[in-house]
From TrEMBL:
Gene3D superfamilies: alpha/beta hydrolase. It comes from Nonomuraea polychroma. Residues 399-486 form the Peptidase S33 tripeptidyl aminopeptidase-like C-terminal domain. This is TAP-like protein. The keyword Signal applies. One of its GO terms (molecular function) is catalytic activity. Residues 1-34 form the signal peptide. The keyword Signal applies. Keywords: Signal. Residues 183-280 form the AB hydrolase-1 domain.
Length: 489
């Protein structure tokens, strides 16, 4: 029986996992189409928070698309039919992030803000196989293989890899669904095409967000002729590789940190007011790398905060309502330099463990997220530290995937763009614009709109300017001018 503590831990894991080799199958697997469900039976959805008119159904897809006649997994679908059926264009499929987020929950959340888009489209959502896994994984798969740390040599790297391999294999052995080995985004993209076929659509339009950019790219790789339009909102560019994405965003994080230090200098309520806040932070992380700060978390027990923990999990670029997050950060830094790391303990220790939980990592490591060797890690760290003196270091997500025991099913590699329509991207200039723009610039004729403020996934945040651009693009296939920006809302 699941305990209350386990339920709380799962809920926390979802929140944290959700706010980046073998040759992949190149085309449709013979016989795969026959494995797809017949036309789904739509019914009125039931439950709390259901928008009026939402219909639900389900389809079956193979757990392993290379073996379409063997084990199946059921995927829940939902749709809000077009309100002007006489002028209906087709369907827009939402591609959720996470991985592990439920697209149906996204649609419930965004339905009111997408009223204009719904006039001409059925808005369709689905529950990806990663979400099915999240809800059904063995409890042992959420036991961390270790508490993540930044290896300082080959010996430490090998120890980390061995610990993670052991935990990942134990999770795989406990898995009764078969999904552990088949959550790469190429498999998810094939599921997306099964949804298209179940809808009876020759081509689909898409709204992908955050990690959803990885299966969106996989879909563009496998089924370019099936894409009518593709809207990307704060999406990762896995095509160029996770390490490249991190290096792209570090300069942005440095600029946001400069905003923080300027704000602190102008704000008497900031705990570091009257000091060089940037210098205080850099001294803190240097000192913590030499002498880790002992802490105790009510949830995660005793641990130590190194400079790597602080660089990875300490600063949040979004200042929050009334600058509440930046006020808390400054206070936590002020306490930590005196030896009290309590302001960072829960979040840092929690993430260091959750990003070492094999059940969470199984949803992402097969998309080529880990380091392949200590030499690769060391090279990346040198690059990151040169770009970002405040936050450079080994990426926690890649550290978690160190020791992945299976071939990388979806390696990062160039994307052929022939046959693809122009894409529209949106991203925050405080964060994920660099990801999204690096993706859309690969597709000839594409445009990315910059949202001039903090945030992530604008259409799920109800931001009217980005939503209007998305609606115009998806409806009329008309892009804004290059360089278009949206003011902060």
């Amino acid at each position: 029986m699941t305990t209350t503590k386990q339920r709380r831990r799962r809920a926390r894991t979802r929140g944290l996992v959700i706010g980046v080799t073998v040759a992949a199958l190149a085309g449709m697997t013979p016989g795969a189409s026959a494995a797809r469900d017949a036309q789904p039976t739509w019914r009125d959805c039931v439950g709390q928070g259901i928008p009026a008119g939402m219909q639900c159904a389900e389809i079956e897809v193979p757990v392993d698309w290379a073996k379409p006649d063997e084990s199946k997994v059921k995927l829940d679908l939902a749709r809000l039919p077009a309100t002007e059926s006489a002028h209906r264009i087709g369907s827009v499929l939402g591609v959720p992030g996470g991985p592990g987020a439920n697209g149906i929950d996204d649609l419930k959340r965004a339905a009111t803000d997408l009223t204009e888009l719904r006039r001409r489209f059925d808005l369709v959502a689905y529950k990806p196989r990663t979400t099915v896994w999240r809800d059904q994984m063995p409890p042992s798969c959420m036991q961390p293989g270790t508490s993540l740390f930044e290896p300082q040599g080959q010996k430490q790297y090998k120890a980390l890899a061995a610990a993670m391999t052991k935990a990942l294999k134990e999770c795989q052995n406990a898995d009764k669904t078969g999904l552990f080995a088949h959550m790469d985004s190429l498999s998810v993209a094939r599921d997306m095409d099964a949804v298209r076929e179940a809808l009876g659509e020759e081509r689909l339009s898409f709204m992908a967000n955050s990690y959803g950019g990885v299966p969106a790219a996989a879909y563009a790789r496998l089924f370019p002729q099936r894409i009518r339009a593709m809207y990307l909102d704060g999406t990762i560019n896995q095509v160029d590789g996770w390490r490249d994405q991190t290096l792209r965003t570090l300069p942005v994080l440095e600029r946001v940190f400069t905003r923080f230090t300027t704000w602190c200098a102008d704000t008497p309520a900031c705990a570091l007011h009257g000091q060089d806040a940037g210098a205080v932070w850099r001294k803190l992380i240097r000192d913590a790398d030499r002498r880790p700060i002992p802490v105790t978390s009510s949830e995660f027990g005793k641990g130590e905060l190194t400079g790597w923990h602080l660089r990875s999990f300490g600063f949040i670029g979004d200042p929050g309502p009334n600058n509440s997050r930046w006020l808390a950060f400054a206070e936590a830094v002020n306490k930590a330099r005196g030896g009290d790391g309590s302001g960072f303990a829960d979040f840092a220790l929690g993430n260091a463990r959750i990003w070492a939980a094999p059940g969470a990592l199984a949803m992402t490591c097969a998309d080529d997220r880990g380091y392949s060797s200590y030499a690769q890690l060391r090279k990346f760290r040198r690059q990151a530290e040169k770009i970002s003196p405040n936050f450079g270091g080994a990426s926690f997500d890649a550290l978690g995937c160190t020791g992945w025991p299976l071939p990388v099913a979806n390696p990062s590699r160039p994307l052929l763009t022939r046959g693809l329509p122009p894409f529209l991207g949106v991203g925050s200039t405080w964060g994920d614009y660099a990801w999204t723009e690096s993706f859309t610039r690969m597709i000839p004729g594409s445009v990315t709109v910059g949202y001039d403020g903090p945030g992530h996934v604008m259409y799920l945040s109800g931001k009217t300017c980005p939503i209007q651009h998305a609606t115009t693009y998806l409806t009329d296939l008309r892009l804004p001018k290059p360089g278009t920006t949206c003011p902060a809302e």
